[in-house]
């Protein structure tokens, strides 16, 4: 059976979710592997959210926020960037390929970029194959 | 005159532990006399000679309180945890190892095969050309020999059986144990089942008296030996990672008083899902850089984030073992 990756995307309300909305209202076609969670700001995305997604069976996690300097709350996306860099290092140590976690900036006008991002990331995760976290962590032996 | 209150029956047992928790119980010093005035130790391998069968013969709920220290590393630990659960009214996870997995839990960065290979083949002092490995059962002329099975994962106590209370710490502070003990002996209201007792509800930082400012800005992290501590300002503000912001108060910040940063043995503050992620958030907040390359440079100062942020809590974290 063909592998269909499950991707969780956390999008900030002000830029990235609006960008995703634009992709939708513009009838752009992109891969349907992504499940979107809207948050108020990319700075709201706690490392717990990302790890929980992997633990619950996500094959990839995408985090999107406003471009640097454009955050609705001034600094949230920088905080997100620093968490992301630290998290990538941590998940590599735990045996999760760091490319399964991706951060991109999507503005409210970048519907096309959003659609391309989803296609590209879906491809990356498909090549990486299924993430074994859920399977391994569900067994206590 | 009222009949004297029946004495409480106590047990202390260890799983995968270093023995420090048992010693912390002995550290009550002369207060031990107050304890034994209202309680009898019925089972405590570090101090008394007693056999497994003596426990097996006890009626269910015979013991009032069992302090179980140590993580669950092998089948003997698990068997005893479940047996003592059955025999005790209150089962208390005592110390970081039974509470969160503790230092033995760091073995979850490896699996059974890797550990056996290292220990029985590769270590510098090992001579084992036949690559003999331990077996849990082995037949000899005299009969079947058995040793406990070594598990692939290290687990906390609550991952194998039902736990009433948790007393955190590596080891728990003896004063806290005495407070808990008097609460139980005095029959004063116990907190709801599953609570962490013998510790506070805030973070270490709330208790710590080192000088701190609201805005921490860090451009470089140091390992403790790379820097001379000024002895009075917040470790994090000096660039030394201190687990204080993500660690429960209650120990009296003894490491910090001894001029060493907090290592996080008291575990996360109440309501936290994953102990290390809170610390990752805190660290990310204080890095004073905006460009990805600069941030990476600062993050690279943290040599082993997983081992540092989950030093005592790997088995109970979200990604609780290396995949």
Characterization of the model:
- The complex is a heterodimer of chains A (141) and B (323).
- By secondary structure, chain A is α/β, with parallel strands linked by helices.
- Chain A contains five helices and four strands, in the order E-H-E-H-E-H-E-H-H.
- Chain A has a four-stranded parallel sheet, sandwiched between helices.
- In chain A, strand 3 (60-65), helix 3 (76-93) and strand 4 form a beta-alpha-beta unit.
- In chain A, helix 1 packs across helix 4.
- The longest helix of chain A is centred in the middle third of the chain and has 18 residues, at 76-93.
- Chain A is globular and about 45 Å long.
- In chain A, 50% of the residues are buried.
- With 323 residues, chain B is of the alpha/beta class.
- Chain B folds into three domains: 8-103 and 153-185, NADH:ubiquinone oxidoreductase-like, 20kDa subunit (Rossmann fold, 3-Layer(aba) Sandwich); 111-151, no CATH class; 204-316, no CATH class.
- Chain B is built from twelve helices and nine strands.
- Chain B is globular, with a radius of gyration of 22 Å.
End-to-end gap of chain B: 64 Å
Mean pLDDT value of chain A: 93
Helix percent band of chain B? 25-40%
Radius of gyration of chain A: 15 Å
């Amino acid at each position: 059976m063909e592998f269909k990756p499950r991707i969780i995307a956390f999008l900030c309300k002000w830029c990235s979710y609006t960008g995703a909305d634009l992709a939708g209202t513009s009838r752009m076609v992109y891969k349907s592997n992504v499940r979107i969670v809207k948050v108020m700001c990319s700075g709201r995305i706690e490392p717990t959210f990302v790890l929980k997604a992997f633990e619950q069976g996500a094959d990839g996690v995408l985090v999107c926020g406003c471009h640097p300097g454009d955050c609705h709350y001034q600094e949230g996306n920088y905080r997100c960037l620093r968490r992301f860099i630290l998290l990538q290092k941590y998940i590599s140590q735990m045996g999760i390929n760091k490319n399964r976690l991706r951060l991109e900036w999507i503005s409210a006008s970048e519907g096309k970029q959003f659609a391309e991002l989803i296609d590209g990331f879906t491809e990356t995760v498909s090549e990486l194959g299924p993430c074994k976290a859920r399977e391994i962590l569900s067994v206590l032996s | 005159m009222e009949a004297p209150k029946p004495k409480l029956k106590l047990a202390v047992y260890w799983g995968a532990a270093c023995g420090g928790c048992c010693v912390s119980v002995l550290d009550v010093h002369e207060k031990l006399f107050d304890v034994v005035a209202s309680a009898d130790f019925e089972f405590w391998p570090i101090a008394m000679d007693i056999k497994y069968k003596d426990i097996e013969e006890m009626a269910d709920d015979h013991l009032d309180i069992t302090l179980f220290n140590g993580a669950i590393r092998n089948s003997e630990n698990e068997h005893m945890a479940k047996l003592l659960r059955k025999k005790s009214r209150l089962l208390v996870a005592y110390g970081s190892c039974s509470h969160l997995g503790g230092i033995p839990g760091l073995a979850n960065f490896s699996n059974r095969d890797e550990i056996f290979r290292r220990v029985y083949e590769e270590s510098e002092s090992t001579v084992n050309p036949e690559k003999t490995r331990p077996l849990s059962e082995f037949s000899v002329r005299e009969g079947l020999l058995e040793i406990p099975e070594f598990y692939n994962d290290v687990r906390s106590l609550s991952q194998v059986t039902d736990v009433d209370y948790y007393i955190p710490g590596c080891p728990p502070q003896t004063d806290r144990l005495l407070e808990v003990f008097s609460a139980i002996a005095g029959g004063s209201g116990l907190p709801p089942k599953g609570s962490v007792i013998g510790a506070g509800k805030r973070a270490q930082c709330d208790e710590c008296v080192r000088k701190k400012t609201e805005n921490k800005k860090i451009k470089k992290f140091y390992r403790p030996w790379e820097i001379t501590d000024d002895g009075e300002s917040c470790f994090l503000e000096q660039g030394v990672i201190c687990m204080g912001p993500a660690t429960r108060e209650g120990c009296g910040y003894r490491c910090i008083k001894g001029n060493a940063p907090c290592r996080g043995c008291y575990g996360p503050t109440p309501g936290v899902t994953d102990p290390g992620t809170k610390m990752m958030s805190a660290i990310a907040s204080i890095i004073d850089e905006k460009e990805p390359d600069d941030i990476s440079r600062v993050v690279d100062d943290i040599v082993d984030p997983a081992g540092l942020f989950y030093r005592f809590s790997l088995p109970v974290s979200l990604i609780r073992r290396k995949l």
